[in-house]
Amino acid sequence: MLQNSNPSPVSLEFPVLFFHIVLFPPKYPNPEAQNPEMSLQACCLRFSIQFVERLIQTVWKIGKDGIEAGTNLVPESVPRPIARISVTVVASAVALFVLKSFLSTAFFVVAMMGLIYFTFIALNKDNGPRGGGGGGGGGGTTPVEDSLEEARRIMEKYK
Considering only Cβ atoms within 10 Å of each terminal Cβ, which end of the chain, N or C, has fewer? Predict the structure, then answer.
């Protein structure tokens, strides 16, 4: 079984237990068990593992309750195991459709933002700093240099 010095208050069901054992196998011996001061990294890791466990448990419970509620909507003439499987298939199809639509919309928005950004950059290339080109003894000045030069002239005027 899983060796954990601080078991989570919620009992682990099969998918969460399987997930935890496969991704985070128990280590023997545990050097953190003797050290009362856990590092920040170990603390964050333990918190994230517990968060993922609770998230999976919550999703699993909501899914089971939803399938049970959907099964209750199916007429009694349909055998319960067949009704439960049918409701599960339909709910999975709807969930995947919604997820696909959301991801498609998000990727479209990101792609359009990138296209608009690169178009803006391409159309405004001539608005950059004007100067001799390369870097060195060029003839042009930047707006910052212009404002500094103007400030110097004003200060010299009032000395």
Answer: C
